From TrEMBL:
This is Dihydrolipoyl dehydrogenase. Its cofactor is FAD. InterPro entries: Class-I_Pyr_Nuc-Dis_Oxidored (IPR050151), FAD/NAD-bd_sf (IPR036188), FAD/NAD-binding_dom (IPR023753), FAD/NAD-linked_Rdtase_dimer_sf (IPR016156), Lipoamide_DH (IPR006258), Pyr_nuc-diS_OxRdtase (IPR001100), Pyr_nucl-diS_OxRdtase_dimer (IPR004099), Pyr_OxRdtase_I_AS (IPR012999). Binds 1 FAD per subunit. The keyword Disulfide bond applies. Belongs to the class-I pyridine nucleotide-disulfide oxidoreductase family. It catalyses: N(6)-[(R)-dihydrolipoyl]-L-lysyl-[protein] + NAD(+) = N(6)-[(R)-lipoyl]-L-lysyl-[protein] + NADH + H(+). It is found in: Cytoplasm. Keywords: Cytoplasm, Disulfide bond, FAD, Flavoprotein, NAD, Oxidoreductase, Redox-active center. The keyword NAD applies. Residues 359-468 form the Pyridine nucleotide-disulphide oxidoreductase dimerisation domain. Residues 5-340 form the FAD/NAD(P)-binding domain.
Amino acid sequence: MENQFDIAIIGAGSGGYIAAIRAGQLGLKVACIEANPYADPNGDPRPGGTCLNVGCIPSKALLASSEEYEKIVHHVAAHGISVNGVSMDVEKMVERKAGIVTKMTKGIEFLFRKNKVTFIKAHARFSAKTDAGFRIEVRGKRFDDVINAKNVIIATGSKARHLPGIPVDNVTICDNAGALDFTEVPKRLGVIGAGVIGLELGSVWRRLGADVTVLEAMADFLPGCDAAVSKELFKILGNQGLKFELGAKIGEVTTGNNSVQVTYTDREGQQRAFQCDKLVVAIGRVPNTENLNLGAIGLKVNARGFIDVDAHCKTALPNVYAIGDVVRGPMLAHKAEDEGVMVAEIIAGQAGHVNYGAIPSIIYTSPEVAWVGKTEQELKMEGVSYKAGQFPFTANGRALGNGDVQGFVKVLADTKTDRVLGVHIVSTYASEMIGEAVMAMEFVASSEDIGRISHAHPTLYEAIREAALAVDNRALNM
Ligand SMILES: NC(=O)c1ccc[n+]([C@@H]2O[C@H](COP(=O)([O-])OP(=O)(O)OC[C@H]3O[C@@H](n4cnc5c(N)ncnc54)[C@H](O)[C@@H]3O)[C@@H](O)[C@H]2O)c1
């Protein structure tokens, strides 16, 4: 194997594989090394990281299937359609999801070949810093070698955080990986953590008929979201049948007879217990920075296990970069991708850049929640003077036609300059609509700019314009 590279990228997840492709496009000689435990049928590591293998893509496949099912069972009757004998084949649904994952991971290998990226399916470990760069051992089923690189990008991602004393077997007690592979709908599903994963996976299995209880340590629901959004989503998910215990302190978790018993102290200090057939633990993620032998090149991790970097993902060591879930900022695939492109361009001598103030966030519940920029709470805390405009989908013709008027759009703009500071959407298609708001923020738009842009009619995204107009109390359809 060729073993002299301009860049060695450790990790072929969202950050690493995109960095590899961009660096390949820029004519650099790139090795991308991946030791993913989610192997292909030959037992070889697959590219794509958490997002493609056990995260964004498979969970969205299941969300889509469960949404189709729920529509047929609960919503098409309102359109005059009657359907009898609806049933759900969970194994087929999971098989479909697996097919999508395989297709996409194969697609990355094709893109690697197209961009002349050397893909090394092995575990990477630093062995030394040399005058010419870095020496890295790559060991796997088909590789036992040492490569040299002038630059390194650490893109090793994160893994699910588990609770001490609660062993995850991914059969009865699961993290994000096991919860995507149930072979039947659990009657009673317990979820620890009302964060993004807990709500998305809880929603999938609730729609298919599971009785879902979510235990959350914090007293507030989704405290990082704009308060109006958290309040609205809490109400909607509750009406859908998800049960929440906020402020719960988890006690003992015991398994037996294909069920799990969870004891906890509720927010009033009362001891409580409940039984479920499966338990999903979704309490956040920790960076994968162990087993890299970072000491061999003199790189340290911080107290929380993350690698400290500057705004351009440069570590304390020259020519060593870190991107994605191993560094500060939200653990989001698109943030990792943007950082991958930035770093590849910087190494190629260009001016790579990420605008951290305009990274969208999405929760794929039904309806979805999407936002970009600041929340009202943040603006208040920062002492920024702002105006807010809000528009409900009950007043949007397309939403009425769709028979789905849940949610609203809220635009926050600076009182003096009218610059858009944040946009928050609760709607079935919020994930797609947020693109307009990200574009507006990236180009430093004012709420008046959005109000003056022609918006096709009838569309859901007209609600963004109406909310922007509402900033100055001049929404047209309200
Ligand atoms: N749609 C998306 O963009 C998407 C989807 C899935 C995951 N992710 C990312 O993956 C990461 C992990 O997701 P997640 O849902 O595991 O984390 P999260 O940080 O979104 O939520 C974890 C939740 O668990 C709670 N919690 C922590 N310890 C607890 C305990 N002992 N008992 C009860 N509750 C406890 C926290 O208060 C929090 O509400 C996040 O950073 C998320 O952004 C993103």
